[in-house]
Amino acid sequence: MTTTSTRPDASDARATGHGRSLAVIAVLCFGGLVTALTQTMVIPIQGQLGVLLDTSEANASWVVTATLVAAAVVMPIAGRLGDLFGKQQVLLGSALCLLAGSLVCALSDSLAPMLAGRLLQGLAMGFVPVGIALIREVAPPRATASAMAAMSATLGVGGAIGLPASAWVVQESSWHTLFWFSTGLAALAAAAVVVLVPRVPALGTGRFDVPGALGLGLGLVALLVAVSKGNEWGWGHGCTVGLLLAGVLVLLAWGGYELRASAPLCDLRVTARRPVLLTNVAAIAVGFGMMAQAIVVPRLLQSPVATGYGLGQSLIETGLWMAPGGLVMMACSPVSGRLIRVVGARVTLMLGGAVLGLGYVFALFWMDAPWQLMVATCISSAGVGLGYAAMPTLILESVPLAEAGSAVGINGLMRSIGTSVSSAVMAAILTASTLGLGGVTVPTEGAFAACFGVGAAAAFVGVLLAALVPRREPSVAL
Q: Which of 221, 238, 264 corresponds to the end of one domain?
């Protein structure tokens, strides 16, 4: 198969004018922001979900897990559907999933419908890789890198904005209001896709690989549930070990099937190419680093002052200290695009990993005040913004245009795996070293420091992996 970065010209959205292209990009970024926001919107009520849904705390934790697992599974599948049947149709389907899921959650008062709604919200995450792939086809050449950077940044920005906004809504109104709000945003996104996003002809050929999609889904669900629940169940528990083994075996069998399939869900030979493979492995490291700060910094900010190192911030205060990181990530989008054009996506990814690691180093030595953690979060967020912008560009430079959606979806999956592993590792570190305080246990200062050290190590591993990606001359000179 011949790799090409050629774009369609006669039928793409750029033929309708620069202004229309910018409108399409704005719609895609808005949709990505909304879908990412729904991933973190339940965090302010996570501790109350058991009471709110009249179920146990263990059962209520599935409200968060179900969305994260569904999002990871759907990204490569949605990408392939976009390649075969048209990206606008898949974007609309994702927005409608978000609309339906948000509406179901808004009307829910028990666990079963809430889980159904959260699964639908997770499936909406297919919007992001398909949107990134479409930007390659509709954006003006000089704006492509910056547009993809902005779309990639919505993953972090949505989460950063979602936390303080959700905390404020929950404090001022009913928790159902969260989901009515996301229902309205999803309806706007769906309408904008219908009105403004063009139906660019599908470039992929062949049939959709249903057995491949089922195999990938089963394997990932088993693996990610085991990783997500390992700390809660115990890493030696039969369910954890059994799901881990089942997931690995199913994915190995899936890989063998995909290599023999005439129209695979994912062309593993293309995925195994050195630039794609190394970028995807680096994505795990960057995803790990992004999630580590999202878990550890809020926990430290909210730790009791009586510990001697805790900062005693409320949930809303914590969200406000974290929110600037999301804004910094978005502000990095034009910077990322310029860097990609001037020095190339490979160097930009290396810079992103290095800046991410420096943010953790800063936090390791300066974590005595909320403003210090805010600065550390902003530095780390800048690194994530650079890294997330560079990865789709590296992937799309190395795969055929007809497989763009699938390839970006796999990269998104790798980031999700990184975030899932990070959640498990950070939780294990924070619970391994605790102290008693007023009848409750809280992580020690050393546990927080260890988390920052591990986050820095993961980021610098990402730098080393990016350095191994083959060099490629920047496509546009300064």
A: 264
